[in-house]
Amino acid sequence: MRLNYLIFFMTILLISNNLFSEEKNKENNTGIIAGRLLSKTIQKPLIAFTVRILGTKMGTYTNSNGNFLVKIIPPGIYSVQFSGIGYETYVQPNVSVNPGLPENLEIELVEKMIILDGLEVRSSYFIKN
């Protein structure tokens, strides 16, 4: 009976070790894109802006300090798009991702003027005919 428990425990231990080593190998063969997003005119961090790796389904948002981090990216050369309301969308081409070496980017976005059509206000809702 004790031998059965020992065999069961050893089997579970070997299976879990194998699963964790596969995940670690997956992370070791991938890279990271990290960096900071700032406003070009006022040099302040841009919060909650979108960071997308074009041609993939990977991306993230900037945090309260304008920092971003995208992990587990297959090695290769990518274009990274930065966008948010009130700023021009910018694409950083030729970002090289290598296993184990984080690629750090410091990006400055230019403000974009948003022009709206005119607005007409009428008070006829309360006027009786």
What does this protein structure show overall?
- With 129 residues, the chain is an alpha+beta fold.
- It has a domain of 79 residues: Sandwich (Immunoglobulin-like), CATH 2.60.40.
- 21% of the residues lie in helices and 39% in strands.
- It is built from one helix and seven strands; from the N terminus they run H-E-E-E-E-E-E-E.
- The strands form two sheets. It has a four-stranded antiparallel beta sheet, with no helix packed on it. A three-stranded mixed beta sheet has the order 4-1-7, with helices on one face.
- It is elongated and about 75 Å long.
- About 4% of the residues have low confidence.
CATH architecture of the domain at 31-109: Sandwich
Helix content: 10-25%
Secondary-structure element series: HEEEEEEE
Largest sheet: 4 strands, antiparallel
Name the poorly predicted regions: 21-25
Strand order of the largest sheet: 3-2-5-6
Overall pLDDT, averaged?
A: 83
CATH superfamily of the domain at 31-109: Carboxypeptidase-like, regulatory domain
Top CATH class of the domain at 31-109: Mainly Beta
As a percent range, the share of strand residues is 35-45%
Fold topology:
Layout: H1 2-28, E1 31-39, E2 50-53, E3 59-61, E4 67-73, E5 76-84, E6 87-97, E7 103-109
Parallel strand pairs: 1-7
Antiparallel strand pairs: 1-4, 2-3, 2-5, 5-6
Provide a compact summary of the structure.
Helix content is 21%, strand content 39%. The chain has one helix at 2-28, and strands at 31-39, 50-53, 59-61, 67-73, 76-84, 87-97, 103-109.
